[in-house]
Amino acid sequence: MASGDERTNVEGVAGNMPTTRPNLWVRFERSVLLTVATCLALLATTIMMFEAAGRGFFNHSYFWAEESVRYLMVWAFFLTIGCAGRAGHMIRTEMLVDALPPALRRIANVTTTVLGMLFAGILFYASVPQVLRYYTMGMMTESTLDLPMWLLFLAMPIGAALMGIYYAGAFLTAIGGKDPYAQAEAAPTDSGAMKGPML
Description:
mainly alpha, 8 helices, elongated
C-alpha cells in the first residue's frame, strides 16, 4: 500500500500531465495519415522482400517491383512530412537557438517558420504544373502496372500542403511568443506524444 508521500508524488506527476485533447486535425494526422503511410511503407517492404526472394531463389526479377516500391515510399514520405514536423523530427540547430536571448530566439522562431511556409509554397507552386502536364499528356508508368503518372506525382503538392499547414501553425505559435518546436510534456506511456504547435 502506498504511503501518503508516495501518493502525493504520484498525484503531483499526474497533475503536470497535459489534459488538453488534440484537435481534429492532429487526430487526423495521427490516425489517418500515419496509418496510411505506414501501410504504404509496409507494402513497399513486402514487395522488396518478394523481389529479393525472386532474384535469390528463382533467378527472376519483376520489372514492376522497383517502380512500385519507389512510388510507395514517395507517397509514404510526403504524407508524413507535416506529421514529422509536429512530432519534432525536423532538423533543427537547438544548441544555437537555445543560446540566444529570448527576443532573438523569438525572431529566429518566426523567421524559420516563415521560411518553412515559403519552402512549402514553392514546392506546391512547382509541383502543380508538373501534375497537370502529366494529366493532360496522359503519361503512364514504364512498367506493366500502367499507372497514371499524374496520380503518382500528386504526392508532391499534397505533401507541400501538409507541410504548409504545419508551418502555418508553427508561425502562429511563434507570433504568440511561444517556442513552436518545444517538446510537449507527455506521460511516459503516451507513445503518440507529439511536439510542435497544435493548430
